[in-house]
Each structure stands twice: as C-alpha cells, then as structure tokens.
Amino acid sequence: MFIRTLVKQLKRQGLLLSVAAGSLAVGTTMAAPQEHPKITKEKATKIALTRVPDGTIKSAELETEHGKLIWSFDISRPKTANITEIQVDAKKGDIVSDQTETPGQQATESQEDKKQGG
Q1: What is the DSSP letter of 89?
Q2: Phi and psi, residue 14, nearest 5°
Q3: Stated pTM of the model
Q4: Which secondary structure element, helix H or strand E, spans residue 33, and what is its range?
Q5: Which fold has domain 31-106?
Q6: What pLDDT shows up at residue 18?
Q7: Cα gap 18→42, rounded to integer Å
Q8: Contact 5, 68 (CB under 8 A)
Q9: Contacting residues for 54 by C-beta, under 8 A, at least 6 apart
Q10: Which residues of the chain form beta strands (DSSP E)?
C-alpha cells in the first residue's frame, strides 16, 4: 500500500522517478517510523470511518510521509469496487488525505508494487 501511495502522489505532482531497489525519494520513507503515534490505530480507524461511514477497513499502516507520521487506511464500500484511501495524522488526528482508487488504478498500483518488491 505504501508504494501505491507514493507512486500516486508522484504521478500527480509529475515527479514519477525511477526508484532503485531499496531506495526512495521525495520526502517519504518505507522505514518503520521512529516516532510513536499519539493517535492509536483504533482512534485513527474511527476517524477514517467518519469520512467513509459505510466502509470496511481492508488495510491499515503506520507510515512517514513528507515528514509526517500518518495512519493510512484502504477502505472498501458496498456496491462499488473502488477503494477509498484515507490518511490520518498520527500526531493530531486530522484527516490529511482522502482519495478514491478505481479497480484499474488498484491493478496498476499492484503491478508497480510487485515491480518495486513491495
């Protein structure tokens, strides 16, 4: 999920770069965050589900993006194959990103993850 988020952000900003195995650029890190979140996973889940109240959490991950510690959630919804990705600031509890991915985008990101070893 992390690589998908990174690639998506880089594409949007026109900054998609060649990523060598094991290295990343542009302010995001795959390394386990050294900081501890002030917002628990359970609290962040509740916050994310306020944006998608009929959703079901498919994955949850603690990441550092652009220097911020965040909880990232992939949320499915009934009657659609789209996935909503919600990112919650792990220090403040604010929603910092809300994006919808179509099945085509999900497939592309899955292939990119495999190429990146993710």
Answers
A1: E
A2: 70, 25
A3: 0.67
A4: none
A5: Nuclear Transport Factor 2; Chain: A, (3.10.450)
A6: 35
A7: 35
A8: no
A9: 77, 78
A10: 28-29, 56-65, 68-76, 83-89, 95-101
